[in-house]
Amino acid sequence: MDIALFYFLVLGFSIFMYVLLDGFDLGIGILYPWFNQEGERDHLMRSISHVWDGNETWLVFGGVILFAAFPAAYAGITSTFYLPIMLMLFALIFRGVAFEYRFKSNTSRPYWDLAFSAGSAIVAFCQGMLLGSLVQGVPEGTNSLSSLHWVTPFSVFTGFAVMAGYALLASCYLFMKSRGRIQQHAAKLAKRLLLVTVLAMVVVSLWTVISQVEIRQRWFDNYNFLWLSPLPIVTLLVSFFAWKDLNGHTMGDSHHEGRPFWYAAILFLLGFAGLVVGLFPYLIPRQLTFMEAASPDSSLFFLVPGICIFIPLILAYTLWGYRVFSGKVEDYQEGY
C-alpha cells in the first residue's frame, strides 16, 4: 500500500499542476469573446505564448502515471469515457494549431481566433463533464460506445463550473500580467467569475452530499464535519480576500496585483482537497480503489527512478520559464 499511495499522491500532484497551469491558459481562450477591442487579443495571446505548451506537460505526465502505475483504472476510465476524452484531445490539438497559425495569418485570423476560443471552451467543458461523471459514479459494465451515461444534469453543470473556474484563473492572471484598460477589464471579469465559481462550488458540494450516501457519511458521520470544517471556512475566507483585492484595484488601489491569482489557485486546491476527502481511496468511485488498480510492486519500484528524475526536472524548467518571463506583458513585439 505504501508504494501505491506514493503513486496516488504523485498522480494527484500532476492533476493539480495541470489544472492550475493549463487552467489559466485555457481560460484565456474562454475569455476571448470579452476582449474584442484592437490589440486586446494579441495581448492575451502574448501573455501565454511562452508557457501554454509547457503547461500541458503535466497532462502527459499524469496520463503516464495513470497508465503505468494504475493500469486497471486507466483501462476503465479511457474505455468508459472514450468519446469525451477523444473530443478533448482533438480540441487540444485544434487549439494548438490555431495558436501557431494565428500569429502568421492576416485575413484568416478571425477564424483562428474562433478555433482557439472554441477549442479552449470544449477542452474545459469536457474536463468538467469527466469530473462530474466520476464523482457521480460509473455504472459497472457500461462503455461510451453504447451509452451516454456521462451526460447528466450534474456532469453538464460541472462542465460549465470548470469553465467558470478556468476563466477566473485567466482573469486573475491577466490582472497580474497587464496594465491599463485590459487590467481594469480583467479585474471586473474576475469579480463576477469569483462569485460564479464560489456559487458553483457550493452547489456541487451540496449536490454531492445530498445525492451520494458515501460522501455524506464521509463528511458528517461521527462528527467528521468538525474536523473537515476548515475546508469550507478557509474557502470563504480566501474568496473574501480575493474579492477585497480585486475590488480595491477597481477603486484605485493598485497594490498586490499578483495576490488574486494565488487566491484563485488556493480555491482550486481547496476544491481538489474536498474531492479527495469525499472519494478517497477510489480512483473510479465505488468500483476501484488505488490499491486494487495498482501495478505489481516490482513494476512500481522500477518506475521510481524515473519519477525522481522527471518531477524535479519538469518543476525546474517550469519555474525557470515563469521566472524568465515574469513581469508585465509588453505589446511592442511581433509574434512570440
Automatic annotation (TrEMBL):
InterPro entries named in the record: Cyt-d_oxidase_su2
Signal peptide (residue range): none
Decide whether keyword Heme is in the record: no
Which UniProt keywords are given for this protein, alphabetically ordered?
Answer: Cell membrane, Membrane, Transmembrane, Transmembrane helix
Subcellular location per the Swiss-Prot or TrEMBL entry: Cell membrane
Q: Which residues form a coiled coil?
A: none
Give membrane topology per the record. Multi-pass membrane protein
Which sequence ranges are marked TM in the entry? 6-35, 81-99, 111-130, 150-173, 193-213, 225-243, 263-284, 299-320
Q: Which domain of life is it from?
A: Bacteria
Q: Among its keywords, does the record have Transmembrane?
A: yes
Q: Name one Pfam family in it.
A: Cyt_bd_oxida_II
Q: Which family does it belong to?
A: Belongs to the cytochrome ubiquinol oxidase subunit 2 family.
Name listed for the protein in its UniProt record: Cytochrome d ubiquinol oxidase subunit II
What is the species listed in this Swiss-Prot or TrEMBL entry? Marinomonas vulgaris
- What are the leading ranks of the lineage? Bacteria, Pseudomonadati, Pseudomonadota, Gammaproteobacteria, Oceanospirillales
